[in-house]
Amino acid sequence: MWDDVKHVIDTSQSFAITSHVNPDGDSIGSALALCEFLKAQGKEAVVAMSDAPPIVYQWLDPDREMMAPVGEADLNQIATVDAVFIVDVNSWARLGRLGEPIQHGQAVKAVIDHHPYTELITPHSVIQTEASSTSELIYNLIDTLGGSMTKRAADALYTGILTDTGSFRFANTSPHAHDITARLLDHGVNPAQVYDLVYNQNTEARTRLMGQVISNIHFTGNGQVAWLTVAPSMIENTGALPEDTSGFVDTTMTIAGVEIGIIFVGTNEGTVRISLRSRGSKDVNKVAGTFGGGGHRNASGVVFKGSIEEAVEAVSAL
Q: Distance between CA atoms of 273 and 250, rounded to whole angstroms?
């Protein structure tokens, strides 16, 4: 299964690794671990993404040894490398402003992902929708190719699996995922420390913003749908950061009777970042796909062009 990916690694010297807009624990964790592995093989490698990582994940690469600065620097990296690894994303649009340069660039492209309905099929693709996370797949890659597992790579992969399984409570949590995390503990991962660094680092500004957002929650569909809105002014007035809204949507799924949770986060660029969550057979991936987004059946996202009001109306019409 990994032969084509191994060929790309063996025949290339310089690599960029990228993932979806609004990066999360799995996209960041899988990308950083892959970067660490490539560097250990004597390769040149850098992680380049359209958006900066949320603060809660910056401890994984505190000195920015692997992550390129967001801006012209990452575009330059994309333009000059031999190969690009695209991880944890299933569409060109979800790569943001890096999508077009990568799609039409000369670099060899390899995809490692666990999302369904991918349009990123290349001769060097490994797509396993049954995997809990892309971090699980990167672990399998490193293990198959006989690479050494550093403490930093282990922390990154554990973070990816932890966050994409909802701290091991989502339906995608598998025996294999638990087996991998047990092995990562053998490489020095401290579960309590990782959890604390990821989930217990709320700033006063983020906490105040969360309070405002939740106090204005909306319910429809006899209480089965809960949705939140975040205007740019709310972020600015509380002194929070745009990435501080990460995870807010998950609070909707703690409410009894709610089957679908949505958050609409407006930006100053005339777009709205929509995150969707659901239970059981409720498929929010189809909703995101309608607007060019994607993800999983129970967790998806999309960037909508327009105002928050227009986004709410468009999603409500489905």
A: 15
Please answer whether residues 24 and 162 qualify as being in contact, where contact means their C-beta atoms are separated by less than 8 angstroms. Answer: no
Q: What is the mean pLDDT of each run of 10 residues along the chain (318 residues)?
A: 96 97 96 98 96 92 88 79 96 92 95 89 92 99 96 98 95 97 99 97 96 98 98 98 93 98 97 96 94 91 96 95
The pTM score is 0.91
**Full residue range of the structural domain in which residue 46 is found:** 3-199
The DSSP code for 67 is B
Q: What is the bridge-based pairing of β-strands 225-230 and 260-266?
A: parallel
**Integer Cα distance of 238 and 207 in angstroms:** 9
Q: Are residues 210 and 181 in the same domain?
A: no
Q: Where are the alpha helices (DSSP H) in 131-174?
A: 134-144, 151-164
Q: What is the CATH number of the domain that holds 86?
A: 3.90.1640.10
The first and second tokens of residue 165, run together, are 């399984």
User: Final residue of a domain: which of 183, 199, 215?
Assistant: 199
211 and 109 in a common domain: no
Q: Report how far residue 34's alpha carbon sits from residue 141's, in angstroms, rounded to the nearest whole number.
A: 9
